[in-house]
Amino acid sequence: MAIIDPRLDGADRAEATPLWQRLGWMAAIWLGSVLTLGAVATVIRYWLNSPQS
Amino acid sequence: MFAGMDAQAAALVLARMQFAFTVSFHFIFPAFSIGLASYLAVLEALWLKTGKDLYLDLFRYWLKIFSVAFAMGVVSGLVMSYQFGTNWSVFSDKVGGVIGPLMAYEVLTAFFLEAGFLGVMLFGMNRVGRGLHFAATLMVAVGTFISAFWILSVNSWMQTPTGFEMGPNGEFLPGPSWTAIIFNPSFPYRLVHTVIAAYLTTAFVVGAVGAWHLLKDRANLHARKMFSMAMWMAALVAPVQILVGDAHGLNTLEHQSAKVMAMEGHYQSHPDGAPLYLFGIPDDANQKLDYAIAIPKASSLILKHDPDAPLAGLDTIAPDKRPPVWIVFWSFRIMVGLGFLMLGLGLWSLLARTRKKLYDWPMLHRLAVLMGPSGFVAVIAGWVTTEVGRQPWTVYGLLRTADSVSPIAAPAVATSLAAFVVVYFAVFGIGTWYILHLMKDAPHPHEPGPEQDERAPIRSAGITPAQQQEEVE
User: Fold this and answer.
1) Helix (H) or strand (E) holding B399
2) Which keywords label this protein (chain A) (predicted)?
3) I want to staple A15 with a disulfide (CB 3.0 to 4.6 A). Which of B78, B129, B271, B459 is the partner?
4) What is the ipTM of this complex?
């Protein structure tokens, strides 16, 4: 595993990691964002479809 | 206002007021975020290309503002779809087969491109690196454009419906070609005009923020860069927008002539060349324009490129198919007037730039600050022109607004409208205040991003990073 210079800033440190790892992070953050919005949308959907609304 | 109306007519007016209120509020945020997403992509591209941290500082500064505007756009947009079910269920039932899939594409775009990659934009720089982060920024910018594409396709189809077939119960069904539905006759004009309007809206906000900070500190490099970029947009894009607007107007004359008659205040036909009314007080009851100030034959010259060309007036349209003139006449003038003011500011900035005084003329900066909200006013005025101008139809010439409303009770709509007014002003008032609060402070070197890097080097107390010495022009 590569040793990363602690003096590098965040973006430089990220670029010192393998591409597959960065792509993995990108997919994870993307999925987390979509799921978060999906959860909010689901709550609103249930609220709108509830009998008393 | 509601005196003499029956309950259903009052409910219709209230439902229209509710939609007008919520869509006007909503439109402010995408009009800003469409342009701002592209501005962020440009800033990040310049940072990657030049390596100058000034662009990264500006990127981080505007990214925070973008995320708040984006969130408010999403929240205010949810209410719109809610109303399709509550207040406009007959409309939804009749046209859902055509516009439903297009609106679904818009939602999918918002989910999977805009919201998904916004997370990477906000929190991913220290995880994915510069290149992938820039790709995420591009995805968000492209996503805002694709969202606009679908929504404007839907709206344009309602204005100039094509490619559909009528079902046995009067419902609109997709015909053999979706291309005919999506690329309906007014769509290309409306798309280009609206997207450019969004870019100009953002440019004038960025320009106003830059000018505001230049008035406080003329040497601020970040303010200089923002102001310079915004004024390039004003000088180059405002004239393009006027030409595109003219083309859009000619398209409207071809497909929705009654709307243009209302915009021009042409109650009467003019067989020998129609005047351009600069000012007037429309009188719908008597179908005439009071206190009119006009340029003879100029309207025919603009609309037909011939000063003597005949132009039909609203007297050729059946009374029950005429739009209300007062609102359309004035909203159109507000939009056009602001467009020319934008052009004027852009040209003034060009003059200042050629004399190397772009950052030295306080009057120019004050006008730029005043013009900061002009894009928002112009897009709403334009939206009012096109939406009120197509009345009394929801699907132009085919489905009346009065036949699109749900069987709802006026008190229920009035109550929810009152609730919307209170909640909107509270929620979006706080959001807007927060955006203005973020704008109050100038961007500075080492502007913090949304994600804090806990391992970043800690600077010694008392040592302030110096301003970057670089040429801004």
Assistant:
1) strand B399-400
2) Membrane, Transmembrane, Transmembrane helix
3) B129
4) 0.81
